Structure prediction request, 167 residues.
Amino acid sequence: MVIVLFADFLLRRGLGGAPTETLAVRVASYALILLIGLAMLVRGIHRARVPSTHAHQEHACACGARHGESGLLSLGVGLVPCTGSLLILIYSMANGILAVGIALVAMIAVGMAVTMGALGLASVLARRLVAERLTGGAGRAALALDLVGAGAITLLGAVLLAGALRS
Prediction:
């Protein structure tokens, strides 16, 4: 919250408006999503052409190959500050109830963390279930799901970036 407030303050002073209304912030966020999607797509295509050197199944891999990628995707999505949280903090500061504002923003953060964590776990479990049903747990179905997911992220990033550049 401190980082967001400080960044918001700096961006408002430097750019003369809210960061979410700044085209450069939106373009950077959407371009990062597009680039990450493209990297995932290239990696998936490469894996489809070159057999895996791992001696274990892809879904059981604990090597951490995807953790950096998911962290970058989270950074790209979260680059634009939450306007609702900013409004709550600004309102609470203006009315002298900053502690209440911080508590509300913390509850929003907890709610988002629980919701996004549950969705993430559900997607991992669903991916495993579908891969197991289609091919016994590994192989072509898992690769196809990876390619479809990477394509969806790439498409989403491209659509968001194109929309931001048009405005």
User: Anything to note?
Assistant: The two ends are 29 Å apart (CA to CA). The chain is about 80% helix and 0% strand. The mean pLDDT is 76.
